[in-house]
């Protein structure tokens, strides 16, 4: 059974005869302890506070039966690890028939999601965790004045909290959507047309950050923590 915030993606699953429904990762409408295994791929790095990221892991653990396992993947700050570049960086030079990427500067965006924190305990924990992770090896730069940098696609990360341009080709824009429109350079007439660009929020994880968040929960045990092609990954077991 799959779930996603996007109704369009869930509809695609339905067309392919897969079971899926629309929901929020912070509140999954499935009975506690009813899942043998859960998978969270490229989800948690979209939550903008340490409290919400921790709450998402806790919600994932809630779904598991005792002895059940969960696999979590998040985007890594370290796109070059042990002298090996990730596939994400390598595709910059070898990709074909893809639109040219561009640096769209710095955008004004709120650093935090709107909504209450889960608890003062989580807030205190997140402060302690973040303070412990602020070392020079990560290479992250502090974000000032609530301005998030806009990432240049297929390049290394210079900030943990950032916006990644998402170029929508041939799409239509709803009235309530706030997007930028840019001219995509290229030889063909189609590539010269204006393209809608969405800025998606990401928090890229430093080494040990995801594992530390998981170990802060008493209800799970970390079975394995590893790096895989520009992602930090953890396998959890429900106690």
From TrEMBL:
- The Basic and acidic residues compositionally biased stretches are 92-103
- Pfam families, A to Z: Methyltransf_11
- What InterPro entries does its record include? AlkB_tRNA_MeTrf/Diox, Methyltransf_11, SAM-dependent_MTases_sf
Q: Where is the composition biased (Polar residues)?
A: 105-125
Instruction: Give the region (Disordered) as residue ranges.
Output: 92-125
UniProt key word Iron: no
Provide the leader sequence positions. none
Record keyword Methyltransferase present? yes
Which SUPFAM superfamilies does the record match to this protein? S-adenosyl-L-methionine-dependent methyltransferases (SSF53335)
What GO CC annotations are associated with the protein? cytoplasm; nucleus
Residues covered by the Methyltransferase type domain: 1-72
Q: Which GO terms describe its biological process?
A: tRNA methylation; tRNA wobble uridine modification
Highest taxon of the lineage: Eukaryota
Q: Name one GO molecular function term.
A: S-adenosylmethionine-dependent methyltransferase activity
Keywords from UniProt, A to Z, are:
Methyltransferase, Transferase
Q: What is this protein called?
A: ALKB8 protein
| Organism, as annotated | Erpornis zantholeuca
Q: Which gene encodes it?
A: Alkbh8
């Amino acid at each position: 059974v799959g779930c996603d915030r996007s109704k369009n993606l869930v509809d695609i699953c339905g067309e392919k005869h897969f079971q899926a429904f629309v929901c929020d990762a912070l509140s999954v409408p499935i009975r506690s302890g009813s899942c043998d295994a859960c998978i969270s791929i490229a989800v948690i790095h979209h939550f903008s506070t340490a409290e919400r990221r921790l709450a998402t892991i806790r919600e994932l653990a809630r779904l598991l039966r005792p002895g059940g396992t969960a696999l979590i993947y998040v985007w890594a700050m370290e796109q070059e690890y042990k002298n090996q570049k990730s596939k994400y960086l390598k595709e910059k030079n070898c990709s074909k028939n893809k639109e040219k990427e561009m640096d769209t500067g710095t955008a004004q965006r709120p650093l935090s999601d709107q909504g209450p924190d889960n608890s003062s305990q989580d807030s205190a924990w997140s402060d302690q965790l973040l303070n412990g992770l602020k070392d020079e090896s990560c290479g992250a730069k502090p974000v000032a004045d609530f301005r998030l940098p806009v990432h240049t696609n297929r390049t290394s990360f210079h900030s943990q909290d950032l916006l990644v341009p998402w170029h929508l080709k041939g799409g239509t824009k709803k009235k309530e959507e706030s997007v930028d429109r840019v001219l995509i350079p290229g030889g063909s007439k189609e590539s010269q047309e204006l393209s809608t660009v969405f800025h998606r929020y990401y928090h890229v994880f430093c080494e040990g950050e995801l594992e530390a968040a998981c170990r802060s929960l008493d209800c799970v045990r970390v079975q394995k923590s590893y790096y895989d092609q520009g992602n930090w990954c953890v396998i959890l077991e429900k106690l």
